[in-house]
Amino acid sequence: MTTLDLSAxxxxxxxxxxxxGGRPCVFxxxxxxxxxxxxxxxxxxxxxxxxxxxxxGAFATxxxxxxxIADAHRAAxxxxxxxxxxxxxxxxxxxxxxAVSRSIVRTLGPGDEVVVTTLDHDANxxxxxxxAEDAGAAVRWVDVHADDVTLDLDAFxxxxxxxxxxxxxxxxxxxxxxxxxxxxxARRVHERTSAIVxxxxxxxxxxxxxxAPAIGADLMVCSPYKIFGPHLGILYGRRDLLRSLMPYKVRxxxxxxxxxxxxxxxxxxxxxxxxxAVDYLAELGRTCGAPGGGDRRxxxxxxxxxxxxxxxxxARRxxxxxxxxxxxRVYGIADTRRxxxxxxxxxxxxxxxxxxxxAKALGERGVFVWDGHYYALELMERLGLQxxxxxxxxxxxxxxxPTEVDRVLDELADLA
Length: 416
Prior knowledge:
With 416 residues, this protein is α/β, with parallel strands linked by helices. 40% of the residues lie in helices and 16% in strands. It contains 14 helices and 17 strands. The protein has helices at residues 6-11, 38-50, 60-80, 93-104, 126-135, 153-159, 182-192, 212-215, 239-244, 268-287, 296-322, 355-364, 377-382, 402-415; strands at residues 19-20, 23-24, 26-27, 87-90, 113-117, 138-142, 144-145, 150-151, 164-170, 196-200, 219-222, 233-237, 328-331, 345-350, 367-368, 370-372, 391-395. A 7-stranded mixed beta sheet has the order 4-12-11-10-9-5-6, sandwiched between helices. A 4-stranded antiparallel beta sheet has the order 13-14-17-16, with helices on one face. Strand 10, helix 8 (212-215) and strand 11 (219-222) form a beta-alpha-beta unit. It is globular, with a radius of gyration of 21 Å. The model has no long low-confidence stretch (mean pLDDT 96).
């Protein structure tokens, strides 16, 4: 397996060439949405230029749109590890989770229980809390260890009972980067309950290979706009589960999967861009040693193997460097011997400085980062940060360089 050719990678992303005040910008904002390759931009423009039409019509551009839709489902299946008819597209992961929770609430009743965690993005908490409230079901919470912000596995076990109907947890925290032992968590759920396992893969999908069936997920969401693609949402659903649920849809819509849960007209130009994003990952994998004639799924796996190795080095460099920044504190796993337990996403406070002020000052210097709670509201409240502005979120991905990591550290040190 060869390593990433970083120069070739960065050449694929036109947005990375942006300057501010004559200096290159550092895009350390990838947890909120990545930059996209030029091929994604071209694919979206090409669709709108030559094939723009609604689906299922008796003419050429509509037939081309049907092909784009089918190809997008195949691309998504190659990304998440399922089958094309197990992939549902929508505007974003949050909307898809609310939609499927509306169907699942019909199966819940008083005495049933729903399990959620304080580590999750609110998109994998609030739909289940509202479903439980509507059904008269109870909610059980799984807490985190405050020192390294990892899930409390004893609390997880204690939350599971013979009344558990839904267990929702993230594959990785979008706030602090913690990677959960998802397959082990799902195994515990399935061994002890008949509950639906609902996984949030949005943050992890940028950094590691997803495999919903191998994890044991019954439902899993991810977001193409955080995986080098356009603004879309993807819901993986185990086929027999999707067939058993009643979707909320208009009468003429198809009852076949996956259209059964895809309401209204889809974002066809976005689907064209998504195909190009998945093909980018496959091409990256082939340049890193995947067989040229191999299938796309194996090429994507090779890409994420190289991505994971590269990002581990970026994370190690950041964690080692921030120890020298006066007053800086990292929330989450800071031990460089545990790099594989986290993504290169860091929640940071710089002394008593308000996170917004830190992010604004960095932005003025051409370093783009996020601040606040990033919808991980329960976690920010649990860490005691919400009332004082949350934290600064610094996130790297495979197109970032060691020099950019150093520049972020230098700017933080200067602010401190």
